[in-house]
Every structure is written in C-alpha cells, then in structure tokens.
Specification:
The chain has 310 residues and is mostly helical. The protein is 75% helix and 3% strand. It has 10 helices and 3 strands. Strands 2-1-3 form a 3-stranded mixed β-sheet. Helix 1 crosses helix 10. The longest helix is centred in the middle third of the chain and has 34 residues, at 93-126. The chain is globular, with a radius of gyration of 21 Å.
C-alpha cells in the first residue's frame, strides 16, 4: 500500500502533549469511559436480542446504532490509550489509512442511521395506521443495509483519493488517531481536490440529513401537540427526545468540526471535538436511551428479574 508512492512507512500520533502524570490520569479516565462505552452499548444489544418486546423497527435501528458506537470506540480509543502510555509508539502507514477508512465509514453510517431512525419515528407518530406497511421488516433491513453500504462507499471514495498522495515527511500527525484532514497536512503534494471532497462530503452527509431530520420533527411536533392525553403525549415525547439528544450531540460536534467557521487553531479545536465525538458520544448514547426510555428500562428489569429467579 503506497510502497512506490511514499517514503513514509509509519506515522507518529502526537496525541495530547501533556505531562507524564496527566497522561497517566487520562489513561485511567479514558479506559474507564471506554469500558462504559462497550458495556452500555453491549447492554443495549443484549436487551434487544433477549427481549421479544423490543423486536420492533425502532430497536432494530437502535441496535445498529449501538454497533456503530462500539466500532467507533474500538477503532480510535485503543490507539489513543497506547499513545498515552508510550507516546513514541508509531502506527504503520497501512494501519493509519485503515483507521481513517474505518472512522469515516462509521461516521457516515451513523449519519444515515440517525436519518432512518427519524423516518421511523415520523411514520410511527404521523402515520400510525400505515406503519406496518411503510416500516415493514423488509424495509428496515433494506434501510439498514443501505446505510452501511453508503457509509462504506463514501469512506472508500476519500481513501482512494488519499492513497496516491506522496508522504515524504514529517511523519508526525497532530492528532490522537489518523484523522483525514490531519493526514492531508503531511502530504507532499497539492491536496486542494482532497480538501474540497472532504468538505463536500461532510456537507452532503451532515447538512442534507440534518435538514431531513428537522423536517421530520417539525411534523412530529405538530402530531404530538394534537394528542389530547397527557400520558400519551409524554410517552411519545420521551422516545423522540432521546433521539433528538443523540442527533444534537452527533451533528452538533460534526458540523462544527467539518463545516463550521474556523477560529484560532482549527486542528487543536478539531482534536478535542473529535475526542468528544469518538469517546463521549458513544458512551452517552446508551445512557440517553436507557435513562429516558421506559421500554429499555422495563426490558432491563425483566432480564434482571429473570436472572434472579433462574
């Protein structure tokens, strides 16, 4: 991979230039967050798998979101933890490009899954009588496959444009993982086309999908306000508010990173935003859905009661 195209065979991830004591503290803290991320999303997957009452389209898509969040964390956090313990440990060129490709794949897929989840809530609330037809299991599977496929293809397009670029030093990446814009700064060639494609890709998978989500929730809000029962309105709003929290966290940080205006040192800002994006978001998502969703809490209680009685 790039043997004849680059003199750089490995990169050094600078991560966070802090004192050794602070790095050890962050190692312990981030390790804890990483464990919570895997545990929380694993619990969501387990509940959806074990509890037949959660075998619905909404929780089918939620299980895919949990897989994406776990994949996010597994792709970036272990390398970051290694660098906190051994800052000089390099990553190979092939490993770096692979990490970039996987990160972009999961990011694009999550964008599309959040749109699909908003469509599911829109149909369930605004067209409940047609829900079984418009969101059948066949439709759910097709939407999930399309989200994953498009996510991978979009990431592949960025990777194909990245591979031919010559890298002749320096080999220090100012990031805690191989983020695409940080890599482009190290290329010994004109990266104008790559930067345009990154910006255009970010705009297409962020601005467009977010607009459709906002449009869906405008209709959902109107439908909720028409519900006369206070209990029914609260139940519907609880599931929608969980999804809106996740959408706000994901799209808010992503738009600031790739589409928003630049102030100060953009790379340093992006580094810390991506830390939130790839570590804290995946950890918070299962907490948001479990704490604000009665069905998930009830399913967890049933599973625990079943284990105690066994």
């Amino acid at each position: 991979m790039g043997g004849n195209q680059t003199s750089v065979t490995e990169f050094l991830l600078l991560g966070f230039p802090l004192s050794p004591g602070t790095q050890m503290l962050l190692f312990g803290l981030f390790s804890l967050f990483y464990a919570f991320t895997l545990l929380g999303n694993g619990v969501i997957l387990g509940l959806v798998w074990l509890d037949s009452r959660l075998h619905t389209p909404m929780y089918f898509f939620l299980s895919h979101l949990a897989v994406v969040d776990m994949s996010y964390a597994c792709n970036t956090v272990p390398q970051m933890l290694v660098n906190l313990l051994s800052p000089a440990k390099p990553i190979s060129f092939a490993g770096c490009v692979t990490q970039t490709f996987l990160f972009l794949s999961f990011a694009h897929t999550e964008c599309l899954l959040l749109v699909v989840m908003s469509y599911d809530r829109y149909v369930a609330i605004c067209h409940p009588l047609r829900y079984a037809v418009l969101v059948s299991w066949r439709v759910c599977i097709n939407l999930a496959v399309a989200s994953w496929t498009l996510g991978v293809l979009l990431a592949l397009a960025h990777t194909v444009l990245l591979l031919p670029l010559p890298f002749c030093g320096p080999q220090k990446v100012n990031h805690f993982f191989c983020e695409i814009t940080a890599l482009l700064k190290l290329a010994c060639a004109d990266t104008h086309i790559n930067e345009i494609v990154v910006l255009a890709g970010a705009a297409s998978v962020l601005v467009g999908p977010l607009s459709s989500i906002v449009a869906s929730y405008v209709h959902i809000l109107r439908a909720i306000l028409k519900i006369r029962s206070g209990a029914g309105r609260q139940k519907v709003f609880s599931t929608c508010s969980s999804h809106l929290c996740v959408v706000g966290l994901f799209y808010g940080t992503a738009i600031v990173m790739y589409v928003g205006p630049r102030h100060g040192d953009p790379m340093e800002q992006k580094k810390y935003l991506l830390l939130f994006h790839s570590l804290f978001n995946p950890m918070l998502n299962p907490l948001i859905y479990s704490l604000r969703n009665r069905d998930v809490k009830a399913a967890l209680k049933r599973v625990l009661d079943k284990e105690r009685s066994a």
